[in-house]
Amino acid sequence: MENRRLFMNYHNNLLQLEEHMYSLVEVEKPNLFYNMFRYDAIPKIAFNDRIVPHNMPDEIWITDTTFRDGQQSRAPYTTEQIVTIYDYLHRLGGPKGKIKQSEFFLYSKKDRDAVYKCMERGYEFPEVTSWIRASKKDFQLVKDIGLKETGILVSCSDYHIFYKLKMTRKQVLDHYLSVIRECLEIGVRPRCHLEDITRADIYGFVIPFCLELSKLMEQYQIPIKVRVCDTMGYGVNYPGAVIPRSIPGIIYGIMIHAGIPSELIEFHGHNDFYKAVNNATTAWLYGASGVNCSLFGIGERTGNTPLEAMIFEYAQLRGTLDGMDTTAITELAEYYEKEIGYEIPPMTPFVGKNFNVTRAGIHADGLLKNEEIYNIFDTGKYLNRPALVAVSNTSGLAGIAHWINTYYKLPKDRQVNKNDDLVVTLKEWVDTQYEDGRVTVMTDNELVQKITEICREQSIIL
User: Fold this and answer.
1) H/E element holding 357?
2) Of 133, 358, 393, 410, which one has the greatest count of Cβ atoms within 10 A?
3) Which sign, positive or negative, has the C-alpha torsion 30, 33, 35, 40?
4) Which uninterrupted H or E stretch holds 129?
5) Minimal CA–CA distance to 200: which of 450, 33, 331?
6) What residues have CB less than 8 Å from 253, skipping those under 6 apart?
């Protein structure tokens, strides 16, 4: 005990005692955590009530995987589409570069063309980085293009080590370190993607591996990033949950027991159990500076953490957007639908067609009186998406009045109210539609056509 080093923790300004050093635990059989992950049962969430402290870093940011993980679940983007989206990401991240990096595949000529064109833009942010497998053949691609940083796949659960790679823990550790050393030898910053970490032996493999990374950083004086990859979405944010499912526990272990600083830790989540956003926010709260995201959550299986979601998480945690241009989110959504042909589910927060549309008549009445009652924030200001009311059999006079005012963008001195002749007449027509058996909401075109007809008949000018 007397030989353990005291050091100052500058996050909480307390002296702390150096933790126990963890060595690689070699095992003959894989540790598959079958007490939690039996394949013929729903995964279990266990607790031991070991609580780790919040440790929000001084700086937090977003990194992007739209062109890497985001392309693994859809038709590949064209080079032109990639460059256009990259331009939007630059604008969205703002002058402080809160979208810090974007990662790209390098395998096809199209991918490499896109990388070159994005690099030609000359933006400081998002920095163009790559992703490769842990092979020297893949690494040659990084050297040829001249990127400053690359992600390297370093699968860390025994599921992958024993069943996919057919190696022992020691063999796979040595293999990973050899590729990372090659990165370091020519001055490229490695980013280690700890795949399937939420089913990995954290203190038997992950922490010992990260300790080896710390030694390499000290030897080469080059930063090595660690990406915490919740590949299957098993991570949970509940206080006192056991590892490897505990996101707070994993971040704490990598920081405290392996000595990896916040600025070199980022979280990459999947949404298999609807926890991607919560887990990414939790990673920030417990010490990771970066969260890795994809636009609209597009990614493998259920998708990644949606980038637009984490922008609003950032604003809620920090009390500021720090210059991020959130209106670009709406323009990106329109670009995806009109130019790329991707259909965004209508209920998707911030970008779906219906995310701030009210249908219930009583809610519409509240919106007409004061928008703050039924809208999450000023969506007109931040997203160029004013709150809307869909017109149906439940909209009522207030809902129809609100739709007219919003759709036609009428100034306050010209806005209609629920007692105006135009509104009453339109409401009567809408009621007739539903009395005749209609079950769908009224479309904008139908309403505009009918309003034009009523205005002509009643000499009303909007």
Assistant:
1) strand 357-358
2) 358
3) negative
4) strand 127-132
5) 33
6) 202, 203, 206, 207, 243
Q: Which of these, 4, 19, 11, lies nearest to 256 by C-alpha position? A: 19
CA atoms within 13 A on the CB side of 321: 16
132 forms beta bridges with 152
CA–CA gap between residue 67 and residue 367 (Å, rounded) = 39
Residues 452, 434: contact at Cβ < 8 Å?
Answer: no
The token duo for 210 is: 């990260």
**Six token digits for residue 157:** 């659960």
CA–CA separation, 188 and 83 (whole Å): 24
Angle between helix 361-369 and 396-407 (nearest 10): 50
Are the C-beta atoms of 369 and 339 separated by less than 8 Å? no
Residue 230's closest CA among 177, 291, 171?
291
Beta bridge partners of 190: 150
- The span from the CA of 191 to the CA of 132, in Å, is 10
Q: β-strand 6-9 against 14-17: which pairing, if any?
A: antiparallel
DSSP string, 257-315: IT---GGGEEEEEB-TTS-HHHHHHHHHHHT-SEEEEBGGG--STT-B-BHHHHHHHHH
- C-alpha span between 277 and 3 (Å, rounded): 42
Q: Which of 49-53, 92-96, 268-272, 353-357 has the lowest mean pLDDT?
A: 353-357
Chain centre to alpha carbon of residue 380: 23
pTM of the model: 0.91
Q: Would you say residue 362 has pLDDT above 70?
A: no
Give the end-to-end CA distance of the chain in Å, rounded to a whole number: 81
Q: Which two tokens stand for residue 277?
A: 């956003």
Residues 6+ apart with CB under 8 A from 414: 462
Q: pLDDT digits over 24-51, tens only? A: 999 999 999 999 999 999 999 999 999 9
